[in-house]
Task: structure prediction
Amino acid sequence: MTEKKSANPSSAGFAGRATPESCSLVIFGATGDLTHRKLIPALYNLAADGDLPQGMRVIGFARRDKTDEVFRQELEEAAKKFSRRPIDQALWNSFASSIYYHRSEFGDLEGYRRLREQLDGLDLKKGGTGNRVFYLSSGPDQFDTILTNLKASSLAESSANSWARVIVEKPFGTDLATAEHLNKVVQNSFDESSTFRIDHFLGKETAQNIMVLRFANAIFEHLWNHRYIDHVQITASELLGIGNRAGYYDGAGALRDMVQNHLLQLLCLIAMEPPTDLRADSIRDEKVKVLRSLRRISGEDVGRDVVRAQYGPGSIEEKPVPSYRQEKNVKPDSQTETYVALRILIDNWRWADVPFYVRVGKRMPKSGTEISIHFKNAPGVLFNSNRDQSRGRDGTQNVLVIRIQPDEGVSLRMQSKVPGASARIQPVKMDFAYGTSFGKASPEAYERLLLDAMAGDATLFARRDEVEEAWRFIDEIEEGWHALERKPGLYFYAAGTWGPVVADQLIENDGRAWRVT
Ligand code: BG6
Result:
């Protein structure tokens, strides 16, 4: 079957956009954090923008006993806290009148049969398409059960007139074996074109802009390779600690939580070849090639190319904060990393010998995600002839910075003559900021992703082989860490600092330095 033309907003303006179709969105784990903080506020904002398809409704599926009314009230409170725009009461009331609650155990097939009756009944009574999106946002240990029951109750079936799709929240497995298993279970109920694996970083406006920046501008692509690029840095830092998420996080750690998905996706967008067209699969084919070309870090190399660390006590915005091990429900001797820095090489022609330094951490001095492309120095023949050999540490490299969040934008560092009689040269910045150029806030990632799933456009979702390739890379590092005889240490950093000194050495040993963000 030929894939339909990409509908993704990243291609809007050059390929058109498929229309999201009306459907019932069933959220599993509807009383959880994600529904309250992200999904409902995203849907409300789509409704406020007039982007939500007519007749669309939301059904929360969860174990606790509650009425539609109570459920709506809880969601209203959450929306008031987390919505990017203030709640307009009349609009909320009309939006909320299409929200329902369905109580059931995840393992009770009868509950799914009742759900089907409820959905069919609503379609009949209020008008509906019979289209369904099932959003798995429960604990991942329930995914298997839910998918099996969706199939057993025939809810997973698409027909000639209507479709059924599934959105799977992260974490998509905890290693390659569990991801492969989950993929099998998903594919047992839904085919790949109906499967939407969430990586919410791909829904961020700035992440989508990476392809536009690279391929809609003539000036970058010629320089985008090992001949002109010295190295790339990707930093994702967060002020926050782990809050109430120890149950999940202590078993995951920063490498699995952030690098396997979000940061490798960003790296792929920077490193991929231009796709042949903008179809979801053409783009994802190119990303998979990057993942396959990542030089494996295993065995002894793990100690050299990867630094893992955990935050100790410290202070954030001048207030004392506890160490990771003192956080609620964290084991007092936990070995889980809350920070990781890696040196990654991509073994292909474009990127030969260009290191990608990636770092991510919680409880850092500030929150922000950015990618910086550090270009090789211009020959020091006319200017900068006496600069040191520090590969840009003296500020003489051109650096293209893509600010993913906050303060979304792109800047380019250049050298300029300081005005006046002196012949001094100084770095200056050319800056583009979304806020000032477009004069409006970017939508939340989940808004875009929910609409894309309703439109059947999988461009901004991870394909099966992408997820598995990423795990292949991560698993070897995890194994290197845990192989007893050569276990590299877990380092510590004070909360509110930029990670352990040894992470600075990781990059300084190559004669480079982390960009001051
Ligand atoms: C999630 C991780 O996927 O992404 C969290 O599980 C992390 O640990 C979050 O805090 C960061 O997302 P954002 O959009 O807030 O940068």
Q: What stands out?
A: DSSP finds 15 helices and 17 strands in the chain. Confidence is low (pLDDT under 50) at residues 1-15. The CA atoms of residues 46 and 52 lie 5 Å apart.
